[in-house]
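The instructor's notes for this session suggest beginning with a concrete chain rather than abstract definitions. Hand out the sequence below and ask the class to guess, before any prediction is shown, which regions might be ordered.
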Amino acid sequence: MIQFAIIGASGASISHIKKIKKSKYGECKYIYSRNIQRAEEFSRQFNLTPTDDYERILNDTNIQALTIATEPSRHSMLAIKALEYDKHVLIEKPVDSDINKAKKLLEIEKSKKSKLVASVVSQNRFDPIFIDMKKQLENGLIGVPFLCETKMFWKRTSDYYSSGNGWRGKIGNVLINQGIHFIDLVIWFFGYPKTIFSNNFRVKSNIDCFDSSIVTLTFPNKMKASMIFSTACQNSEPFQFNIYGSKGKLNYNNRTKIGIDSHFLPHLTKRIKNRIISRDNSPLYIQIEDFINAILCNKPPAVSIKEAFEVLNVVKECENNFSDN
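After discussion, reveal the predicted structure:
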């Protein structure tokens, strides 16, 4: 049984706790927050030991793993200390909000020479629908891909930006906070881009960061990804993820269009089945199971710190184009 400490009393922490408790091989012991009252609220709800003393957790030899779900600017610092105390770490995305801090974490993690398991939450990679789409793409179902289209139009209120210590309204732009999950997907599907272009802008006046972004990535094979992200919308809409190829189209929302019919019906049946399965075993749960399995079997996790660093690097390049004009 892997004993966990949950670092950060956030909404994401609640998801981590529930998924770890569901696992046969994971058990939650601590909830840590700099705000002890917040930690105590979580402790009563989930029967955990509250603490505002990070060293207490690091010095507890019974604790083998930490999940880190604080504000992004603290992710790498907390993870580095955990690795130095020989704890395995699973970090909420992004790996950090600062590329230099993330780089230091990458260096520390490499120095451990795979002794410890370190990973970053990338739950979309564990979504059965995305996994199936990736296999279909690699098997040539839609021929040669030439365009990936992603649209994310969500509503985020003033309360969302001001909650906690207010970090979302200061540095929580739409790319580092939401779009990064979809950028991660595109890089997982197509590799690291050759060129990166973005146009970032702010619609809401009550925040210091941008809430809307248009990103274009070009890959070595000349394929492009066009992505639009906004949290300034009046109403949230289901996200779109489409891949266009020379023989057809892959669509996340189960509307795959191909130039051939009956031969590929089993693929569509499998996609529907995977949707039903994913209701019980969410992508986050599957990733946590992968993380635990990597610890138990002494093997690399499905998502590495290096991969998360590369995704952050793309986001940081995009952030440079923020303008209020």
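Then share the key points. Residues 174-190 form the longest helix (17 residues). Residues 205 and 268 are 44 Å apart (CA to CA).
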